[in-house]
Write a structure and sequence with these properties.
By secondary structure, this protein is of the alpha/beta class. The chain has one domain: TIM Barrel, CATH 3.20.20.70. It is built from 12 helices and 8 strands. An 8-stranded parallel sheet has the order 7-6-5-4-3-2-1-8. Its main location: cytoplasm. It is found in: Cytoplasm.
């Protein structure tokens, strides 16, 4: 599972001004990320605005992404939802060619118990041909995957190989790292705390800001993984402000603003998301220009 060591990018889905998927922009982004040295990308995660894409659009984006990547780096598909039966059917119907794993966020809105979360992932694990990465993001889902549930799933299902952990709860992260089976991967799901998480044993990040700054992000993460924390420190602090700005008016609107400034793709988002305010836009542009000067 060293395929998921290093920097993964939860890629945005570029849209044209009329809201249609911008496949030229998506190809530009994929090439830009590969040139930037990232280890893998995640297609149609939360950052990819998957909640606003139709089933047919998702199918086309997954296929296009696999074709554009063409085996050059590893590739993960984001497949999730709050109807377990529907998620299972999506996974069973998914065309796995070109993909290395499925990232699946815990069910949002329903607020299931820990047993419900366990049974949800059990059903997914029993029906997936690909390895599964759990995704715990309580700020979005409204419920937390506890350390005990994560460890239970890791022990019970060999094809549940890791977790993207975005709770920000270091007590919980410590418990998982202490109790997990050997080989189970802890991956940061929150850019600003990737540095300390790797110090605790995480194997990398699935990043948002890395869409715009793949080289800077992946270089910093690689230094952390090589235990060069002193060398990684500057990169960590350099990225803090742009990362903060990318979330002030919501994600992925912020990072799409940066990508437009870089000439990679446009900044259109689909409702209920909207583009960032003029003030935040100007701050993001100024921050991107600082990196371009370095």
């Amino acid at each position: 599972m060293n395929k998921f060591y290093g920097t993964g990018i939860a890629i945005v889905t570029p849209f044209l001004a009329d809201g249609q998927v911008d496949y030229d922009g998506l190809k530009n982004l994929i090439d830009y990320l590969i040139d930037g040295g990232v280890e893998y990308i995640v297609s149609l995660g939360t950052t990819g605005e998957s909640a606003t894409l139709s089933a047919e659009e998702k199918k086309k984006v997954f296929a296009f992404t696999a074709e554009a990547v063409n085996g050059r780096i590893n590739l993960v598909a984001g497949i999730a939802g709050n109807n377990t039966a529907d998620v299972v059917e999506q996974i069973k119907a998914f065309e796995i060619t070109g993909y290395d794993a499925i990232l699946s966020a815990s069910p949002q809105y329903n607020k299931p118990t820990q047993e419900g979360i366990y049974q949800h992932y059990k059903a997914i694990a029993e029906n997936s041909k690909l390895p599964i990465l759990l995704y715990n993001v309580p700020s979005r889902t409204g419920s937390n995957v506890s350390a005990a549930t994560t460890v239970r799933l890791a022990n019970d299902f060999k094809n549940i190989v890791g977790i993207k952990e975005a709770s920000g709860n270091f007590e919980q992260i410590n418990q998982v790292m202490r109790d997990k089976p050997e080989g189970f991967l802890m991956i940061s799901g929150d850019d600003p705390i990737s540095f300390p998480m790797i110090a605790l044993g995480a194997v990398g990040v699935i990043s948002v800001v890395g869409n715009a700054l793949p080289r800077q992000t992946s270089d910093m993460i690689r230094k952390c993984l090589n235990y060069d924390f002193k060398g990684a420190q500057k990169g960590h602090y350099d990225l803090l402000n742009i990362t903060r700005l990318c979330f002030v008016d919501g994600s992925p609107a912020g990072v799409k603003t940066a990508l437009k400034q870089l000439g990679i793709c446009g900044d259109t988002v689909r409702l209920p998301l909207v583009q960032v305010s003029e003030g935040v836009k100007n701050e993001i542009i100024a921050e991107v220009q600082k990196f371009n000067k370095n």
